Amino acid sequence: MTTAPVTLDIDGLLTRTPTVRRRLDLTRPVPRSLIEECLRLALHAPNGANRQNWRFLVIDDPATKAGIARYYKAASDAYLAAGPPAAMSERAVAGVRYLADHLHEVPALVLAATRGRLPRDAPLAQQSGFFGSVYPALWSFMLAARSRELGAALTTVHLAHEREVAELLGIPADEVTQVALLAVGYTTGGPGFRPTPRQPLDEVVSWNRWER
């Protein structure tokens, strides 16, 4: 039995689906049926040439999550030690640290991958299509999850140890490329999120010609 959907119109859903790290409920299991609902909706996302090369691996086994978490923690620590981007707030850094410390406790992880591997010298258009054919489905999953009182954090940090994680999960690394990882759980602190803060439109949009 699934939970009642969050009452949000489409604009509300689009503006109130943030990356959720510290507000993931680490104590409440997420039913497999609920994750399958979100994935079923995610499969309707657009993708390159409608090839549907995406593959999704859901991990809810504690020992397997712990194995992934060890690689994730090592990669996250190295990322933060190298210095996070200047635009990254202290709050965001704290969220990254929190997720790295608690990934093994997150109720479910959804690993997104795609069949095939790019050559090292793949042209930009090929790279964009290869990875861009998976991300719309990930965003659709996050929207579907939010409408079901779930939160998610999309991360690529573990890809620093892609081969090790592939071996842990039985993924044929020469045939399948991991794209991203979603940490999924119910949320704490009440059902609502404020609209995510973003830059003013006139700072990021120009018309007909690039403007600095």
UniProtKB/TrEMBL annotation:
Span of domain Nitroreductase: 22-186
Superkingdom field: Bacteria
Cited Pfam families: Nitroreductase
GO MF terms held by the record: oxidoreductase activity
PANTHER family in UniProt: NAD(P)H NITROREDUCTASE RV3131-RELATED, NADPH NITROREDUCTASE
Protein known as: Nitroreductase family protein
